[in-house]
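Contributing new records

If you add data, match the layout below exactly. Sequence lines come first and carry their own label; structure lines follow with theirs. Keep one chain per record. Anything else will be rejected by the validation script.
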Amino acid sequence: MGFDLLLQNILNPPVLMFLLGLGAVLLKTELEVPQPLPKLFSLYLLIAIGLHGGYELSKSGITLEVLKVLLLAVFMAVLVPVYAFFILRLKLDVYNAVAISATYGSISAVTFITAGSFLNNLGESYGGYMVAAMTLMESPAIVVGLILLTLFAKRENNSKVNWGEVLREAFLNPSVYILMGTLLIGFLTGEKGWKAMDPLFGVLFKGMLAFFLLDMGIVAGRRIGDIKRVGVFLVAFGILLPVFNALVGIFLAKTFGFAKGDAFMFSILCASASYIAVPAAMRLSVPEANPSLYVTMSLAITFPFNIAVGIPLYYFLINHLWG
């Protein structure tokens, strides 16, 4: 990986804000973001990415190329938790293997947004339909995880899966709902709608992302102490599996002729792990699993790795292959 590419990613203001938040915890300062604000930043980012994605989708239209990307996104969201589960079963019980594999089968919207900012800084673009791909990849891993649970776990009668609640959490959780809704709004209103919203959701986007990543750095820093409880096997899993998933994504993108920017964003989606939607669903449906494992792995290991190293690494590989 080129050192200049790694340096360019780290010297990106939002990434530096993440490291600033991380350092604040490690240096034991009292810095914190007032708690109602991170929820507002999160909502803002989801609305902005949904509206812009819908606008871009309205320009490209729903073509065969778009359908191909969406189908491969769902394919990876189903495949990843299956092979992750069997790797994890080498060391873990069924419940923790299900929860962690579902976490890594889903995606991180913040990693996706940060990667989009990285790509924009390089003057390259990606299709707005990648936002639709991101939305489609958030939920299938929850369902796949619970199917694995049903097949492999011997549970007590009073801990049977409530499929109605699980499916509701999978497909109507707030992140999926707001992304799908704003994507539809952006698609229906097109260029006129985006121009009206651009001053708030376009011009201010990078500043709001920096605020959000400052808070994420603080949250990740508070989780770093939990890594000791996770163990060497799971720390290695939290770094190596995302890299492997990205390589599978890059292989599929090359095989099916994705454009360069789309291939990069697809690899980011394959490599990221959920730390909001899936943990919430796992707490509800797999209470036997230990949240300090799957939340710590996703938030304190995989997320910082992808932000600092994964994004330039995957881009370096794609740039080499696509030219």
